[in-house]
Each structure stands twice: as structure tokens, then as C-alpha cells.
């Protein structure tokens, strides 16, 4: 599964795996893809540096990347405490009442909310970039808009490619104008922050909008056939996130949450602002439902909502409250039905890609109908 972009990056397969877990990112890289570690959950540069040092020791010199949350618009000289002071008391009361309704205990005395994401802050995000560029990364990706111009310049000076996610052709053109090296076309089906346009429509639109920049297809991709579809639409590779949540190397600690993911169908997700303040696809739970009820004050804008619910999310996860526990995940969750190591997922992706391409070759050669039965039997074996 090689493309011009994979050759440029020195990877065997044009599979880019985004994950918050270093062990998963390293395993993706070792299996021939490009593991991309999400930095936003690290509250300090020291925490991220420790994980990237671990990555360096476990990828065998193979390439990997880092994903940051760093919009082009700067938000400087603002502390977390100042932002938290903007949260209305009515919203805090709603969170307390919802947790009490489900009997969720407080965290132990002195324990801080572990889900407290501050990577969107200018100071923290820039420290993430500083640390990332001190390591031998090959890709710096930005999840919410393209990075500021000075960050793009620094990355290029270090020989690092810069990418950003886009949910529309308009966003993609902005990325191209900002001097980025590739665009990730993330469709409506994807987990996390997504737009309104489905992958099948979005990928060719963005390919046309930013040509000749390479594009990665993202959203609803978890099999080799789906990866082949993304390549057929003009992409130079695929960007996968959700499929890595249930691999054996995943640090998803909660057995309850892991079981919910393995049992979920493709219709069991919802785009909700309940987690971060921006529409993010996640498992539908009684927590997401609560924010849609008439008595809800409604989610706050980002980053207020994320800070508002940080303690609540940590409590729900710590005590594994089944009705409320969830996570960002895409519609591909319906095909995530068993735990497997990363290497097995990568092997299935590449083999499925080869089968899909071979099937299209047979059809293009006029042998598709005659060979349908044989091909189907081969795919099932």
C-alpha cells in the first residue's frame, strides 16, 4: 500500500494512525505505517517529552509524528483560572445534579481531574511544539485549523512535514495557503471534531481544491476495502483514529468502556458539544443525552465546556459509571468487534487493500462477473 507520500516519508504503507497512546503509535510505526501521537492530553511539556523519549526508544529508528491542537489565532496571556472564572454557576449546578442523579462519587481527597485538557492553551500548545521538534518526528499535524505561520516555518526548517485536518474544501484551501504540506480530509463519520460532509463527498472535493498537495482520507475507514476507496477518490493515504481504541496495546483502562466499544453498532454514536464545546462524534450515552434535554443549560463554547466537565468526566471514568461513560469514536465502531494487536489490524488492512485492488483489476479487465464467486470465496477465507 505505497504511494508517493509514503515513499517521501519512508514508510511501507500509506496508513497514518492517530492515537493518544504512545504504545499504540509505536506499534503502528513498527508495523509499517506512521504512528501519530496526540499531544493535547498532556498538560505539560515534561509529560509529552517523557512519552516521546519512550517513543524514540521503541520505534527502532522508524518515522512517527505528533498531533497538536493549535489554531492559527493566538490566545496569549490567558490563564486556565481566568477562563474557568467565565463558567456560569448554572452550568456547574447542572453538572453536579446530573452526577448526583447517577450516584457518581467525588474523586478521592486531593486527586485532580485527569481529563483536564489544557493543550489548546497558547502557552501549552507552543511548549508541545517545542518538545516535538526536539525529537526526530517526520510529521506535525494540527487537529483544529492550521498552526501559526512561525510554527509552520520552524517545522519546515527542521525537515518536518506539516498537516492539518479539514472538514470542507474551504478549510483545505486555507491550509494550502498557509503553506502546509498535506491536508487530512476528515469526513462526517469520523470520531472527535467533525464537520457535516461525508467522506465519500469530501475527499474528492478537497483533492481538487488543493491539488497538487497530497490528501489523506479520514472518517469511516477501518478496513482495507475502505482504504482502497479513499485512494480511489484521489487520496495519497488514509488517516485512522477510532480503530486503535480497542487494540490490545491501547491504554484504555476501563473494562466497561472497552466492552461498550466492542458491543456498539455504527448507529451508536452522536455528534455532541457535551465534551468539548465543539461538535465531536462520540459514543451516545445518558451523559450526551442529558445535554440535549429541555432542562439543560446547553453546552458552553470551547474551551469553557471542556473545563466545565473535566472533573465530571474523570469521576465517570474513575468509577466506571456504565450509563455515562463514553469516548470520542467514529461510526467505524460498528466494525470494532474484537481486541487485536496493532500488527493484526495493520495486516488485515493491507491484505484487505490488496484484495480490493485485485477485485477492481478483475472488473476493469472485464472478468469481474465471471470471477465474482471465486473472489468472494477468497475474501471469506
UniProtKB/TrEMBL annotation:
CDD domains: NPD_like. Keywords: Flavoprotein, FMN, Oxidoreductase. GO terms for molecular function: oxidoreductase activity. Coiled coil: none annotated. It comes from the Bacteria. The keyword Flavoprotein applies. The keyword Iron does not apply. Its EC number is 1.13.12.-. Pfam families: NMO (PF03060). PANTHER family: 2-NITROPROPANE DIOXYGENASE, MONOOXYGENASE RV1533-RELATED. This is NAD(P)H-dependent flavin oxidoreductase. It comes from Streptacidiphilus alkalitolerans.
